[in-house]
Amino acid sequence: MNLKKANLFRNIARYSLLIIGVMAFLFALFSGAGDYGGGFRGILKNSPNALPWSILLILTLVAWKRELIGGLLITFLGLVLLYFFNAHAAYFRWNTFLLTLLIPMMGLFFILSWHFRKGNIS
């Protein structure tokens, strides 16, 4: 039964973070490219906006292989993103808050999956 729970938590975290990461990365990469003239040059100049989301995708790959380490790093990154995107905003947006809240939750899912696999939780 613990293996089923571990697989459930791991799969939810893996695929949720993959979807969130790819969608946010593409949005951040292309959304401001028009301000820089569009085209490949605009995408290249706008690419620093996609950096946090590329880090999330890399950490998702780390968690794919090593659940505990990746889960801890994703949780930390998620808390940083939660603070960065919500604490300094001129106005509060629920959708940004919920999106960034999902990231540390998925990191905790990786950690829970690791604990279930090790038999630390029954």
Features:
0% strand, 122 residues, single chain, mainly alpha, elongated
Explain how this protein is built.
Helix 1 runs antiparallel to helix 5 and helix 3 runs antiparallel to helix 4 (67-87). This protein is 81% helix and 0% strand. The protein contains five helices and no strands. By secondary structure, the protein is mainly α. The chain has one domain.
Percent of residues in helices: over 70%
Helix and strand sequence: HHHHH
Mean pLDDT: 89
Largest sheet: none
Content-based structural category: mainly alpha
Structural shape: elongated
- The count of domains is 1
What value does the Rg take, in angstroms? 16 Å
Low-confidence stretches: none
Gap between N and C termini, in Å?
9 Å
The overall strand count is 0
What's the tally of helices?
5
Strand content: under 5%
Summarize the structure.
The chain has five helices and no strands. It is mostly helical and 122 residues long.
In terms of topology, how is this protein built?
Blueprint (H helix, E strand, L loop, with lengths): L1 H30 L7 H8 L4 H15 L1 H21 L6 H25 L4
Helix pairs in contact: 1-2, 1-3, 1-5, 3-4, 4-5
